[in-house]
Amino acid sequence: MTSNSKPNNFSIYMFPSITFEEDKILRLLDVLESHDKFTPTHWGNSDLIKVAYSRSEIIKELKESRISQMCLYRKQSIKYSADLDIYFNLRSYLSFEFNNSMPSEYWEYFFNLTDQIATIAQPRYGVSHIIWPSSTPWKNERDRLHLWMDYAASPLPIDFIPNGPLGLGLRTYFSGEVLEMFGRDLLLSTPAIVKELEWGGIRIDLVERPWEADIDTILDQWLKSMKHLETANVIAIPDFNENGRSVNFSPNIEWEKWLKRD
Q1: What is the CATH number of the domain that holds 16?
Q2: Residues near 241 by Cβ (< 8 Å), separated by ≥ 6?
Q3: 109 and 139: one domain?
């Protein structure tokens, strides 16, 4: 990255393997409140509602089983919106989307925050990523690969459930049945920075300090690591639109088998 470049946004997308019971919600709120620049300012029990943030009100509604979704927002500097499903099912989803207002001195903390959230959510598949500006429509092969990486690092339930893991982000988590599809040995031998986590998952960082890497280094490492993992036939197959602006996905062999399981 050049000194005058600025990310488009910072994102965390996870597919939790747990239900967010009261103790899990409290741990998550503790994590966010532990830094005054990341404390929520508003919340809601749907994406249509935004009221002043109240930890006690959240817990009250949770005790009364009145919420199945929790949305969190921060409208001050370091702005973000977050959305999570309280109850576990195969479509359970958690997301944090930060805009580009985050100063660079907080980028490392953003990845620390991701780890703390992952320890609570224990994602079957989760991605934390910084999206740097890219050429749209793409002008060359490098641009096309950059766009693919950004799409792969931004999995929504509408993409993940029918198609499987779209790929890696700067930091990626695997556990449960998704880890088993790849195989622990294959994930651990990825040509990247790989760590086994205490809660049973595996974390893959494309580079040693992802908050400092330039986009060319990131993309080179992404291609190398993706090539390694593609041998498992789990990562979704990309289809690049002729307009040069978007990528669609279809399920790979192992994910199709998973979709057809009894």
Answers
A1: 3.30.310
A2: 247, 248
A3: no
Structural domain boundaries, residue 214: 133-262
What does the buried/exposed string (b/e) look like for 139-168 if buried means 16 or more CB atoms within 10 Å of the residue's CB?
eeeeebbbbbbbbbbbbeeebbbebbbbbb
Q: What is the pLDDT of residue 136?
A: 87
Question: Using an 8 Å Cβ cutoff, are 27 and 120 in contact?
Answer: yes
The per-residue pLDDT of the chain, averaged, comes to 94
Q: Tell me: do 91 and 166 sit in the same domain.
A: no
pLDDT tens, 185-240?
999 999 999 999 999 999 999 999 999 999 999 999 999 999 999 999 999 999 99
Same domain, 157 and 246: yes
Given a cut of 60, is residue 3 above it in pLDDT?
no
Q: 46-62 burial, b if ≥16 CB within 10 A, otherwise e?
A: eeeebeebebeebeeeb
How many domains are there within the chain? 2
pTM of the model: 0.95
Q: Which residue has the tokens 């998952």?
A: 201
